[in-house]
Amino acid sequence: MSSAMDYGELLIREYVTLHERKYGTDSLYGESLKKMGRINLEDVTKEAVEEIVEPFLYEWGRMGRVLGRPEFWDWHSTLTVQIRSNHHVLTDFRGRQLVEVSLDECESDIKNCYDSFRQAVGQVASAKVLHLICPDFFPLWDNAIAKAVRTELVEKTNVGVIKDFSAGDYYRFMRGIQTLLKTYGELLLRLANQHGKGQLRIIDEFLWWATHRPLSLVIQDPDS
Q1: Does the reported pTM lie above 0.90?
Q2: Cβ neighbours of residue 60 under 8 Å, at least 6 residues apart?
Q3: Cβ(153)–Cβ(169) below 8 Å
Q4: Which of 6, 15, 91, 120 could crosslink 78 through cysteines, CB 3.0-4.6 Å?
Q5: What mean pLDDT comes out for the span 102-109?
Q6: Tell me: the pLDDT tens digits for 188-223?
């Protein structure tokens, strides 16, 4: 194992441990996944979206400010329609693991799902809802993670400032997460089993700390 991989494993363990110590179990997250898993996507109702997706986005995902914007005033209805219209693809993705999939074969379906949900709830909440429906296939991101990915894209492609994330950006993000799963699969599986969570949620906890870590983690108060 290379030193780079050693360092990567160290960071994953450290950040996931920090997250678990501070936040512990995700009761709302877990219950939301269970409830959504029982829903027939073809027959999903606006009431089910209000009961399951709304608290997941507002309370767990902290998306209330975004979804309160005028352009999302009827997001419950719009999202209901988009879930139904994509139910065949989403039902297939529900039974698949990201690490095992040939993403090239799924690219158009992934982009179409993301674009559909993006119209309903925006570029960050769309990934959260996709994950809620297919928790082993679609990875999570938030504003800080998306911003970090945007920075990497700017540095690597030299295309200037990227104002919005496209379906192509999310697809590239999925490819990166798949590589992470393949590289650190054994560690991620151990951590997932240890904490009773899926591997994509463990990765999200790692990325959350990697992009939100407080200065106190690297700079200690000399008077403490």
Answers
A1: no
A2: 26, 28, 29, 32
A3: yes
A4: 120
A5: 97
A6: 999 999 999 999 999 999 999 888 765 444 433 434
Interatomic CA distance for residues 102 and 69, integer angstroms: 37
Over its C-alpha atoms, the chain yields an Rg (Å, rounded) of 18
**What is the pLDDT at residue 28?**
95
Q: Please give the angle made by the CA atoms of 167, 126 and 52, to the nearest 5 degrees.
A: 155
Q: Tokens 């209330």 map to which residue?
A: 64
Asked if 57 and 128 count as a contact pair (C-beta separation under 8 A), the reply is yes
CA–CA dist 37, 134 (Å, integer):
8
Angle between helices 143-157 and 199-212 (to 10 degrees): 80
DSSP one-letter code for 38: T
40 by DSSP, 3-state: which? Answer: coil
At residue 81, what is the residue type? V
Structural element, H or E, at residue 115: helix 103-121
Residue with tokens 């054994």: 186
Is residue 79 very low, low, confident or very high in pLDDT (cuts 50, 70, 90)? very high
Structure tokens at 208: 């959350």
Tell me the mean pLDDT in the region 103-107: 96
